[in-house]
Amino acid sequence: MAAVSGALPHTSLSATLDGYGVFPADGDVVPFIAQQAGAVAEGIVYKDVTDVQMSRLNLYEGAFDYRLVPVTVQTPAGRLAVSCYLPSNDAKPGAESWSLAAWEKDHLAPAILAATEVFTRDPLPSSSALRAMWPMVEARAWSKHRAKPSPATRRFRPGPTDFAIERAHSPHGNFFLFQAVDLQHRQFDGGVTGTLKREAFYGIDAAIVLPYDPVRDRVLLVEQARIGPRLRHDPNPWMLEPVAGIIDARETPEDAAMRECEEEAGLHIKEMVPAGSFYVSPGATTDYFYTYVGLCDLPQLETYSGGLEEEAEDLRLHPMSLDAAMDLADSGEIATGPALFLLYWLLRHRDRLRARG
Fold it and tell me: Which of 42, 91, 43 has the alpha carbon at shortest distance from 66?
């Protein structure tokens, strides 16, 4: 409530709404209040919501086609007429009852991160614009939620205040985000920097897979046209890469890797072997890659087409021997970091993986 409305209203009381049940929205995890004979929906009434808070609530709820409806609830002080956000008439609830405790355990933290991002924008988007950008907002929130401490045996071990963002300026962009910040951080001599102005690109966690047939010693590379090389004025923006894709909200990196192999290349992966996870360019972007070598069968050497038409993917899939791929790496024809990283990782672990069959 505080993340969406901007501040927690001062006055609240528990309440129940008779004749309504709480369900997850069909195919989602968000709560959905729908009429159900004999059911009781438990909730909270906020009594001193300001106009500014209401406008933020209406923006957020309106993005998902929820609308304010007058209802009468039962409170410890008696019956009370209130307004409640209910879904549109054509919305469908899921089959199971919704659990607040289960939602809090698995989804509360990224939900707060997503709402926080939305309301850092100036100007705020419309409800329809927010609905269109929501999948990426959620994916960014889950990327932040997924970030965990990693080893620091040689590098600096920071405390909570050693890297402080003093001001985060309003981000720009709908699909991806670009943001300027003012920050300070601890120096190696024990001092603190002055205010530094930095800019960064907000990407999304991605799963990267190099399909590998250990029996035939073959890999598969994806060819597609890329905007980055074109904007750099590269004469040939068609790149050779591993299978790759954004990790959706509530999706594990390995599940995303499996999904992308099927969608892009029509491959069934027998086992995903983790090859490392890392920041791609930490001085300028949040992009974080989970990389795998996907053990599979690659019986053919002929190039074939792949990708999803609804995502405008125009892909060519190139099965080839690992040695042939290394020749392309040596010649510079393979010029993408994840492909080079995974090929050299595979070269190091090739004998181990081939011995497993």
Answer: 91
Closest among 291, 202, 201 to 243, alpha carbons compared = 291
Place of tokens 């024809």: 333
Which tens digit of pLDDT belongs to each residue from 231-287?
A: 999 999 999 999 999 999 999 999 999 999 999 999 999 999 999 999 999 999 999
Q: Residues 293-347: pLDDT tens digits?
A: 999 999 999 999 998 877 778 999 999 999 999 999 999 999 999 999 999 999 9
**pLDDT averaged over every residue in the chain:** 94
Distances (CA, A) of 164 to 144, 170, 181, 192: 16, 17, 10, 10
Q: What pLDDT is recorded for position 357? A: 63
pLDDT, tens digit, 9 for 90 and up, residues 204-224? 999 999 999 999 999 999 999
Bridge partners of residue 278, in order along the sequence: 289
Distance CA 311, CA 225 (A): 14
In this structure, the strands spanning 206-213 and 243-246 are antiparallel
Q: What is the token pair recorded at 200?
A: 């960064």
- Same domain for 230 and 121: no
302 is annotated as an active-site residue = no
Parallel, antiparallel or unpaired: strands 304-306 and 288-295 = unpaired
- Among 244, 256, 3, residue whose Cα is nearest residue 110: 3
A 10 A CB-CB count for 71 gives: 18
In one letter, which amino acid is 82?
V
Residue that terminates a domain, selected from 141, 167, 186: 141
Q: How many domains, the chain? A: 2
Quote the pLDDT of residue 272: 98
Backbone angles phi, psi at 301, to 5 degrees: -110, -5
Contact (Cβ atoms closer than 8 angstroms) between residue 49 and residue 5: yes
Domain span at residue 324 reads: 206-356
Residues 223 and 304 in one domain: yes
DSSP secondary structure string for all residues of 130-143? HHHHHHHHHHHHHH
User: How many other CB atoms are there within 10 angstroms of residue 16's CB atom?
Assistant: 12
Examine the fold and report which residue of 141, 160, 178 is the final residue of a domain before the chain moves on.
141
Catalytic residue among 254, 264, 311, 333: 311
Q: What are phi and psi of 286, to 5 degrees?
A: -85, -5
